[in-house]
Amino acid sequence: MKILLIGSGGREHALAISLFKSPRLSSLFIAPGNPGTAQLGTNVAIQDTDISGLLAFAVETQIDLTIVGPEAPLAAGISDLFIEAGLAIVGPTQIGAQLESSKAWSKAMMLKAGIPTASYGEFTDHVSAITFIEDAPLFPIVVKADGLAAGKGVTVATDKAMALNALNDCFVNDVFSGAGQKVIIESFLKGEEASIFAFCDGKSFKPMLAAQDHKAIFDGDKGPNTGGMGAYCPAPIVTPAIAKMVNEQVFEPLLAQFKAEGIHYCGIIYAGLMIDGNDVNVVEFNARFGDPETQIVLPHLKTDLIDVFEAMVQGRLSEIELEWLPGAAVCVVMASEGYPGSYAKGRVITGVDSVTGNPYVVHAGTKRDDNQLLTSGGRVLAVVGQGDDIASAIDSAYKGVDCISFEGAQFRRDIGAKASKWLNRSL
Ligand code: AMP
Ligand code: GLY
Fold it and tell me: pTM for the whole thing?
């Protein structure tokens, strides 16, 4: 099967690694890809948002199946375009992708479907949002830009001044380039976050193993949020009882709501959860795989990923039995100096070639120049370690990290440590 994979991050390298394992793969094209994906297929110099360019390439190359990694092409309507042209694509159409591209739309879906989530208000004018904050009885309160904001549109405001400032950024300073002209203000959820992804073909869904991301830049969850500094899977905070609850209270009602509204959702549903004891709320939905969670969820999947994706586009996902491998996987992200603010680029990376097998390297913001590997993004690469349990997977991942260096590299030393408090407790 000829596959086109869209995107250039660590998530896409991780997807490419899984696709490459399939005996059914005849050729793999990645647009635009990265030096990691270049080792597994052919990188094609088309940006992920150039959806007409991607369609032209897919038609010309007679691609059998396209898989969309990031949210931007989904929000731009790539799946509508491909479906109209009669091509098979994994990823929701523009209307379904609003699950991620509009927080207001997503919250309204949750409300209609009865999915547990924080209570909220929706505002399109600054003055009424200010009045709401002035009258807010409780802080922290959470201010969210409605549209896509590269993970930067959410402020957990600990006081009134911070909340008002966040509103200013949305309505007056327009720092999210239009994405903040509509704002959600919601109550603060306490607990610990975890994410569960599900494959969905519009008729049924199949959940994957739960993962836990580490969003803050510094150890102990300190400092500003990033795209994710590391993750592990499975996440013991998601007990079988909680996983069952998520199926029954999140995925099932969401799919039923899609059906009721005539939305055919063929893609990944990412449920970002807040877990507090037996209380589970949805913090957000995304319309794609998570990054860096994909790097540590997919290595557990024993079922051929091409079989799963093919079943999705053919509407027969219910016939597939997902098989998962035991053990644990941990990934530690190495990021550029200055990230998540403005960061340095072009630093020479050494040691990557020595990290193969277990642990191994997943590329994200890297580029090859004259046979040198250089940094080119905020999150540069991730080292994935696997083991019989989380502790041995952590050891393996950090052994790899210790072999790799570039000037100003930032990484957390405590990825996976959170799991231990759940493992030491009888569940
Ligand atoms: P989102 O983009 O909606 O996932 O928000 C980004 C991050 O902000 C989440 O991963 C949480 O850490 C935090 N966050 C968002 N909404 C809430 C909430 N209602 N209560 C507590 N934390 C939140
Ligand atoms: N790891 C968070 C995300 O993919 O949105």
Answer: 0.96
